[in-house]
Amino acid sequence: MKAEEIRALSTEEIYVRIDEAREELMNLRFQQATGELLDATRLSYSRHLIARCLTILREREITAAREGVA
């Protein structure tokens, strides 16, 4: 999921995506620990998706703070 696609989502939807990605990341870590993980690139994809979502949420917080001050 690209940043522009995430920006099109509402804040609540982004939080849902973060929760889903964190749950997937946890499951992937368990699979890796037990030797069942077939695609190791999914680990980094999940981490990057979480980071992208959190970055966009932070951008929204900063924008809201600026608009509140001005």
Overall 3D form: elongated
Task: Give the H and E element order.
Answer: HHH
Strand content: under 5%
CATH topology: Helix Hairpins
Helix content: over 70%
Average pLDDT score:
95
How many distinct helices?
3
The value of Rg in angstroms is 15 Å
Number of strands: 0
Distance between the termini: 33 Å
The main β sheet shows up as: none
Q: Output the CATH class name.
A: Mainly Alpha
- Find the structural class using helix and strand composition: mainly alpha
Quaternary: single chain
What's the short version?
By secondary structure, the protein is mostly helical. It is built from 3 helices and no strands. Helix 2 packs antiparallel against helix 3 (41-69).
Summarize the structure in words.
The protein is mainly alpha-helical and 70 residues long. The protein has a single domain (3-69), classed as Helix Hairpins, CATH 1.10.287.310. The chain contains 3 helices and no strands. Helix 2 packs antiparallel against helix 3 (41-69). The longest helix is centred in the C-terminal third of the chain and has 29 residues, at 41-69. The radius of gyration is 15 Å and the shape is elongated. The N and C termini lie far apart (33 Å). The mean pLDDT is 95.
Give the SSE layout:
Blueprint lengths: L2 H5 L3 H24 L6 H29 L1
